[in-house]
Amino acid sequence: MLTSIFDVSPLENDEDGTSIKANPDSEDETMRQPLRLSDIVFLDLEASGLGDRCFPIEIGFIRAHDLSGWSALIRPADRWRKRGTWDHRAEALHGLDRETLESDGQDVRDVARTLNDNLAGKAVFSDAVEFDSHWLGMLFEETMERPAFDLQSVDPLFRSPDLFADLPIMSQHPADTPLQKHRAKDDAMALALQFRQQIK
Which residues form a coiled coil (predicted)? Predict the structure, then answer.
């Protein structure tokens, strides 16, 4: 497994939630070995805001080789309901409200299980790794489970798009399908498409 920029496990807590510690040596480690295209996954999270007491509300990922993926709204954990902060400015961006999360969101344990089942051993990349690692840490803390994958910055990958084993690209994203900004799966798709454009 590749080393992550921000290690989401083990979790370290402070009074406001989970603190994620940076690993300054990880960026060099990330690109030392070729990556198989089928192992590259792009992940994104949306949150109730950017403050210390905000919490994750949506997560999505896209596989680089075939653009398949998954996303889920996250039903707030009890602790988030009691202590969490909801930023209406963030709601205006992602368009999700608390009522929708309660009615359509998945339990944090189911979300964590799906992530581990699909991403174990994969090279998972984010374009906002400090924030996304923090939200992942909060999510997994509620489940008492450990993540089976590392989250890494896209920066070294985009700087060196040739450092992966050659595999055919299986499918294309329909050009007439618009992507909605500030929604987790669509933001992950945008990263995947940007990466695929670089490696053509």
Answer: none
